Amino acid sequence: HNAEAPNLEQAFHRMAQTEPNLDHDISWFLLPSYWAKMVVALISFLCFANSYDGDFVFDDSEAIINNKDLRAETPLGDLWHHDFWGSKLSSNTSHKSYRPLTVLTFRINYLFAGGFYPIGFHVINIILHCTISVLMVDVFSILLGGLQFSNKGRRLNLAPKTSLLAALLFAVHPVHTECVAGIVGRADLLCALFFLLSFLGYCKAFRESKEGHHFSIFWVLVSVILGAIAMLCKEQGITILGLNAVFDALVINKLNVLELIQKLLHKDKSLENAGLLRKGLLFRITLLMSGGASILYIRWRIMGTGPPAFTEVDNPASFADSLFVRAINYNYYYSLNAWLLLCPWWLCFDWSMGCIPLIKSVSDWRIIALAALWFCLIGLICQALCSEDSHKRRILTLGLGFLIIPFLPASNLFFRVGFVIAERVIYLPSIGYCILFTYGFSLLSKQAKKKKILAVAVLGILLINVMRCALRSSQWRSEEQLFRSALSVCPLNAKVHYNVGKNLADKGNQSAAIKYYREAVRLNPKYVHAMNNLGNILKERNELQEAEELLSLAVQIQPDFAAAWMNLGIVQNSLRRFEEAEQSYWTAIKHRRKYPDCYYNLGRLYADLNRHIDALNAWRNATVLKPEHSLAWNNMIILLDNTGNLAQAEAVGREALELIPNDHSLMFSLANVLGKSQKYKESEALFLKAIKANPNAASYHGNLAVLYHRWGNLDLAKKHYEVSLKLDPMAPGTKENYNLLRRKLEQLQKKGG
What are the ranges of the TPR repeats (predicted)? Predict the structure, then answer.
């Protein structure tokens, strides 16, 4: 499996002799490799340790709690046909994010924890980031110091100081908080882990042996496989194959890119002297590119249909009619990503929905950011290509490569992405930033007379970043803190106001929720989800007119919005416009065939209209689609009971309790039916079981008292009437029944006297 390349051996020894050492000029800590890795692991742990007991927040709900692929009853094979959120990849509504290995780790977390307990999920994320940060010591030692092996084949760290500094910069970068503290960030962490392992595996292909320097086809293939695994964790992983090719050309073959371009332009026949045709390079690049193409082809076949369909609010620039506007705004987004790497102070869980208004004219002052970005990039590229210092060329090119290439899938250049800015996608590009920062620090140290002051300044930056990580991690511990932290960063983001409102509504603070929902709709007048939620709250507060207006507008903007159609039907039902309500319910079902809640509400409408058969059919559909739909079962039992179909009501009640054995409301409904059927003993047992599960329900005690009253057990009847009246003095019928019982007891006492 080994292909000889003797001409590379001299190149390696020459590099060791002639290349300058970055460590020579900087004033920094020199630690043995083991201790350096321990320090990096400890500091990266301290940055994010306070997120270990956080809740499931933001996207965690969809990717974990509502994802059926995590549950044991879902066949393991389904993971390979579903997207990250548990939807079928072939579905038109799928986001096409194919990350089966990440979902598999969530499933293992869920099974080991025995349920949705976030601590285990968070701990794994923290461990993954610590592991990646430790691997970074080795990766940066190669990228900054070069690839060297001892006579025994052990890789040498020629830049222990700078590799430690770069690894620390990576470990404590605040922009990584979303990946570590947000459980969904597991995809980026796993992708980064196998990304780095692929790179280190590729480096192993060039280990020296007694026979001379050679490369191992085995390790090149291992690198390709690890790259494929990285992509099965997140799509960015595939970019490592391109970076391995760049590393091979620059470090292993010492290719001078500018010289190569010049020779190609002049059609120079001595291209082999430029290193392009040096033995083995083309073969290895062919292996990498073939592997990458095969992986992408398989990925495209699995995806089934075309690319995902995103909306304008997800990525407004990509929907701009003008190519100029699109290009300007894409470049502005790149500059903001660069700024987040340089100054990660303003961090937000979501940057869409008006957070960053479009640049529509060259007179917009934000054009300055684009100019600054390209001024810096062009300067770095010129230095990377034209510098006479080969060491400088190599480090700058690798830094730019690791900064730009992993970012390409998120750049909108090849396909539209579903976000404006996403901090999680900067996890891998931050490797390039750390290389460039560390190299810049070494150059400054070389020029500076007081190197220790410079070192203290860098230590200060690291300390500030550690504190920022700890603060940001604490904000990711709960949705309330996370959403509120975004208000000051993105006050124009409608989704931020929507999420704050939703969080308040979930906690029962409807008045405050209305305020934030209204602001979300003001900021984005087409925000149908905010309209739907606001309409729901107004419906519950009996402000039906405004609720109907909002929900009607929502379905007008998005005609296939099934939830809004259902809620509109509920409002129309409350306004006693039954025909319109029925039509709205059926429209909702048309757009979402498996919609048990809509069938339940449709059943209620039919019950109000005394269309009992239709009501029972609608509720039966609800229970078929969702067997644990307690309200639908209950309504069937009650309707059959009220219409005198006691035998059928009993059968439905028993069927429901088999499916939901611990539902006290079903026990109560069936107990009522059994009592009317004079099955007193069984009825009593169910009433007592229901009361044990919910002891403060006045109706449970009241109806059990009625059962005892009928049964002739008057003392127990009196006891439960009194408990019921104590819990709810205004309980309908209970006071009258209790007075009847008291008169009966008084009459019995008189007779006994």
Answer: 494-527, 528-561, 596-629, 698-731
Q: Could you tell me the CA-to-CA distances from 651 to 227, 657, 686 in Å, in that order?
A: 58, 10, 15
Q: How far is CA 96 from CA 15, 63, 307, 314, in A?
A: 45, 13, 7, 15
pLDDT confidence bin for 414, thresholds 50/70/90 = confident
Selection from 247-256, 434-443, 447-456 with the highest mean pLDDT: 434-443
Q: How far apart are CA 79 and CA 148, in angstroms?
A: 42
* Best CA proximity match to 649, nearest among 681, 622, 612, 685: 612
Query: In this predicted model, what pLDDT tens digit does every residue of 217-229 receive, in sequence order?
Result: 999 999 999 999 9
Q: What number of other Cβ atoms are within 10 A of residue 76's Cβ? A: 11
Neighbours of 656 (CB within 10 A): 26
State the average pLDDT for the chain: 88
Closest of 26, 183, 32 to residue 103, by C-alpha? 183
| Tens-digit pLDDT profile for residues 241-264 | 999 999 988 888 887 777 777 777
Q: What percent of the chain has pLDDT over 90?
A: 62
Rounded average pLDDT over 469-476: 95
Within 10 Å of residue 24's Cβ, how many Cβ atoms?
A: 11
Residue with tokens 């010591």: 137
Cβ 184 vs Cβ 60: under 8 Å: yes
What count of residues does the chain have?
A: 753
Please report, for residues 51, 170, 179, 206, 485, the alpha-carbon distance to residue 469 in angstroms, rounded to integers and kept in the order given.
10, 12, 12, 38, 14
Q: Provide the 10 A C-beta neighbour count for residue 501.
A: 26
* DSSP symbol at 286: H
Residue 276 pLDDT greater than 60, yes or no: no
Quote the pTM value. Answer: 0.84
**Tokens at residue 742, please?**
């008291």
The one-character DSSP state at 449 is: S
Q: Both tokens of residue 438?
A: 């560390």
Do the Cβ atoms of 126 and 49 come closer than 8 Å?
Answer: yes
Pair 175, 411: CB distance under 8 Å: no
DSSP state of 305: S
| Of residues 544, 549, 490, the one with CA closest to residue 520 | 490
> Chain centroid to CA 379: how far?
36
Tokens 């320097």 sit on residue: 213
The secondary structure element, H or E, covering residue 520 is helix 510-523
| Two tokens, residue 584 | 């709205």
> What is the pLDDT at residue 27?
75
Furthest-apart CA pair in the chain: how many Å?
A: 128
- Give me the residue spans of the domains in the chain: 32-303, 320-472
Nearest to 727 by CA among 693, 749, 751, 696: 696
Task: State the first-to-last Cα distance of the chain, in angstroms, to the nearest integer.
Answer: 109
Assess contact for 140 and 434: CB atoms under 8 A. Answer: yes
Residue 510 confidence (pLDDT): 92
pLDDT in tens, 694-711: 999 999 998 898 888 888
Buried b (16+ CB within 10 A) or exposed e, 520-536: bbebbeebbbbbbbbbb
Q: HEC profile for 484-507?
A: HHHHHHCCCCHHHHHHHHHHHHHC
Residue 459 CB contacts under 8 Å (≥ 6 apart), including other chains: none
- Round to whole Å and give the CA distance between 87 and 204: 39
Inter-residue long-range contacts of 345-348, CB under 8 Å, 24+ positions, other chains counted? 345/174, 345/468, 346/489, 347/174, 347/175, 347/177, 347/178, 347/423, 347/472, 347/489, 348/423, 348/485, 348/486, 348/489, 348/490, 348/493, 348/496
Question: What is the crossing angle of helices 562-574 and 578-591, to 10°?
Answer: 170
